[in-house]
Amino acid sequence: MCGIVGYIGYEQAAPLLLNGLEKLEYRGYDSAGICLNNGEKLIVEKAKGKLEVLKKLTENGTTLSGTVGIGHTRWATHGEPSDINAHPHLSESRRFAVVHNGIIENYIQIKEELSKRGIQFLSKTDTEVIAQLIEYDYQGNLVDTVIKVLSRLEGSYALGIISKDNPDEIIAVRKESPLIIGLGENENYIASDVTAILTKTRKIYRLENNEIAVIKRDSIDIMDMDKKAIHKDVETVSWDISAAEKGGYKHFMFKEIMEQPKAIHDTITPRIKDGRVVLNEIQLTDEQLKAFNKINILACGSAYHVGVVAKYVFEKVLRKPVEVDLASEFRYRDPIVDEKTLTIVISQSGETADTKEAMKEAQRRGSHVISIVNVVGSAIATESDDVIYTWAGPEIAVATTKAYSTQLAVIYLMAIYMGDKLGTINSEAYSQYVDELQQLPEKITAILNNKESIQNLASKNFNNRDVFFIGRNIDYALSLEGSLKLKEISYIHSEAYAAGELKHGTISLIEQGTLVIALATHEALLGKIISNIQEVQARGANVIGVACDNRSEISEVAQNVIFIPPTCDMFLPSLAVIPLQLFAYYVASLKGCDIDKPRNLAKSVTVE
Ligand code: G6P
Fold first, then answer.
1. Residues 269 and 456: beta-carbon distance below 8 Å
2. Distance of alpha carbon 288 from its chain centroid, rounded?
3. Which residues contact 521 (CB under 8 A, 6 or more apart)?
4. Which residue in 49, 85, 548, 562 has the fewest CB atoms around it within 10 Å?
């Protein structure tokens, strides 16, 4: 989704803005632009397509001079991707420029009103109304004007605003869309997330909803909408700079796949003390935990797939019914949720609009919400009742890998922790789970060390038109993620099916050479999945099996098998997902796809 960056200091702003935008590319975008105050006027360059186009147009920013400016990567919502619809947007007389993340819901009404007063609009965007309204309402004080304009806007926004008349300030505002301020020496930044400015500063302020900031070279004033000053403590970001860089790898996705042992280790280790799971983040008493009669999981995309695994895990370990909902569906289905429901919300970014709104819906109905989030201080993290952070570090590739894995790790921690509180697991199982959980990073490393064999399989299987992923029970839950990973980055049509469901329709799609990836890690159902493999093979399928290395019978039926080390049933997805991620990565690489930024996709989907 859209990315914002802004700079005010003594250096030339354009190259810095382009550099910041480059760091935000992962969020997904289809056009980009920058606007600077050159001391006389506002100068702007915008271009449809990749940032490279804008870089060429501005000779890497060297053709634009000015030490204050704002930049934006746009992911089109209102109006197609084009030079004109790209941000920044200027007011009619080019006196004010605005970059915006979010959606202005009542923009048509405002646009009609301003058009009637003779104001000419250039773009089809909702954002342009903000620039035009500022100019229309301006009476000499920009902060007052912006506050007045905001009172008219419905929707969500993070805004960066500069003006022709004042080359010494940037105005920043936030409501529902994230925005941070980066603090430098005689220079300051704004950005939609820290990765954009991490190479420049680690000291930040996080703007909260309905806060407005006046940012100058050597001062930052933050206030509420009544202009009452707000004091904030400076936050120091602990993310390693190298975590937001490729560090010698060709793609972020590959780097992030390889980082998974560390990410899981960092997520579980601080929460296991003397063999006991300590989840201080959960504020609920044992009585409150026991009083819940249902668990409700809300998420989108891969985070939803974690939720599907969690359903199997929680029902088995906690003996409580679990419902998993796509957040976009939950919001509109009048769900049966109340104070007796425990809601768990899963989100890497903590900003996904549907997930956030679904969470609020659950809260309105009296449900206690625990969120599992990667981005510290994000909306879902701050607005949920309790938050358990995944310590995956910044995830840049659009297709998630390490965030998915660390979300699973948190689910396992929660299952052990709550199972103990509810008395549904005995001490022997408890110790075994903790022990196996701690071994996951090492076992994942062993699978990663064997990546060439998966690359080899990918080289023989990258030309398929369709791929089917099948599995039963927790293997089915994982097949959803395996299939999504492949289709989102390689553009190969792929589908996940519960293996027992094949014969009710999908099997008619199997023909000579169709690739079927059969997940067969779940020991109790091995015989059943072997039968399903035989069924598809009888119709010509080419089968790659994924199984534990203590079960060799799968080799007798599948053409190829990827073996993983055994572990407790419920932890198997953490291991089996690794070859599926690698397979998707290598296939996409062989097909020459834009792996880190697949077409049409965004990392963080902040619109409905
Ligand atoms: C996008 C991303 C997915 C992610 C989903 C939910 O579609 O491309 O990787 O799973 O959003 O995002 P969240 O930040 O809420 O986990």
1. no
2. 31
3. 474, 475, 546, 547, 548, 564, 572, 575, 576
4. 49
Report, at the CATH architecture level, how domain 252-447 is classified. Answer: 3-Layer(aba) Sandwich (3.40)
- From the CB of 605, is ligand 1 less than 6 Å away? yes
Q: Which atom of ligand 1 is nearest to the CA of 602?
A: 8
Q: How far is the CA of 103 from the centre of ligand 1 (A)?
A: 19
Q: Could you read off the pLDDT of 579-592 as tens digits, one per residue? A: 999 999 999 999 99
Query: Pairing state of beta strands 235-236 and 42-48?
Result: unpaired
Which residue lies with its CA nearest to atom 8 of ligand 1? 603
Task: Please check whether the two domains, 252-447 and 457-590, share a CATH topology.
Answer: yes
Would you call 603 a catalytic residue per the annotation?
yes
* Cross-strand pairs, 173: 159, 212
Q: Which of 2, 35, 300, 593 is catalytic?
A: 2
Q: What is the pTM of this model?
A: 0.81
Nearest ligand 1 atom to alpha carbon 349:
14
Sequence spans of domains, the chain: 3-237, 252-447, 457-590
52 residue type, one letter? E
- Alpha carbon of 154 to those of 38, 110, 358: distances in Å? 32, 10, 19
Residue range 34-43, pLDDT digits in tens: 999 999 999 9
CATH code of the region 3-237:
3.60.20.10
Q: Kindly state which CATH superfamily the domain 457-590 is placed in.
A: Glucose-6-phosphate isomerase like protein; domain 1 (3.40.50.10490)
**Given this model, what pLDDT does residue 29 score?**
84
Q: What's CA 51's distance to the chain center, in Å?
A: 21
